[in-house]
Amino acid sequence: MTDARNTSLAFVCVVAWLVAAASAEVLGIWSAIGGAAVLLGLAVLRFGQPSPGARLKPSVRLVLLGAALGGLMAVATHLAHPLVVRALPFVAQETERLYAAFRAPSLVVAAVGLVPVVAGEELVWRGLVQTALVRRFGAWRGVLLGALVYGLALLPLGLPLLAVVAFFCGLAWGALCALTGSLVPTLVAHLLWDVLVLLWLPLDTP
């Protein structure tokens, strides 16, 4: 009964995420996706069984693991981006479009909203959707499918580069979640990557 309930909740979250992404052109990416992340994350905490909140218990080891992965991912992103742009020049324009969408509100709003939005994303995608897929298909197929759905759910935004990045990031965060059984390192890694790539050292800065 618990698995059926979580599967139903995961389906509802994915559909709601798609609707939110489709409304971003009108509402803006932070209001649409950010609002959906926070509200759906709260729903997962309330209705998920057992509550994913139990997987948010921090420890020094888990925080350090997350920080290490987030830092490595940020370095890899900054090293890979110019190589990808050289091979696929259109990626430079897509990068500019992506940052323009994220900068629509002030950086202060983005910085303040980042923590609850990232927490909501992790609760929904790694805490609920990936967990449901892992139980049904096994650990690594579940991680792969979870990352694929995570990326595809962002396609209605009209920012294909974001969907591709989300897939690869989802693979890394999902694998870490599967290995540790905790959402703490994925939350830390996700937050640190966002800070280093989206806010502090953006890829579109010469």
* Mean pLDDT over all positions: 92
SS elements, strand count: 0
Backbone shape = globular
Beta-strand content: under 5%
**Main beta sheet, described?**
none
C-alpha end-to-end distance: 54 Å
Total number of distinct structural domains = 1
| Structural class by secondary-structure content | mainly alpha
Q: Runs with pLDDT <50, length 5+? A: none
The SSE order reads: HHHHHHHHH
Give the assembly state of these chains.
single chain
Helicity range of the residues? over 70%
Count of DSSP H/I helices: 9
* Cα Rg: 16 Å
What does this structure look like?
The protein is mainly α and 206 residues long. It has one domain (2-200). It has helices spanning 2-22, 24-27, 29-47, 60-87, 90-102, 107-137, 139-152, 160-180, 184-200. Helix 6 (107-137) runs antiparallel to helix 9 (184-200). The termini are far apart. The mean pLDDT is 92.
Q: In a nutshell, what does this entry contain?
A:
With 206 residues, the protein is mainly α. The chain is built from 9 helices and no strands.
Characteristics:
9 helices, 206 residues, mainly alpha
Question: What's the helix and strand layout?
Answer:
Elements: H1 2-22, H2 24-27, H3 29-47, H4 60-87, H5 90-102, H6 107-137, H7 139-152, H8 160-180, H9 184-200
Helix pairs in contact: 1-3, 1-6, 3-6, 4-8, 4-9, 6-7, 6-9, 7-8, 8-9
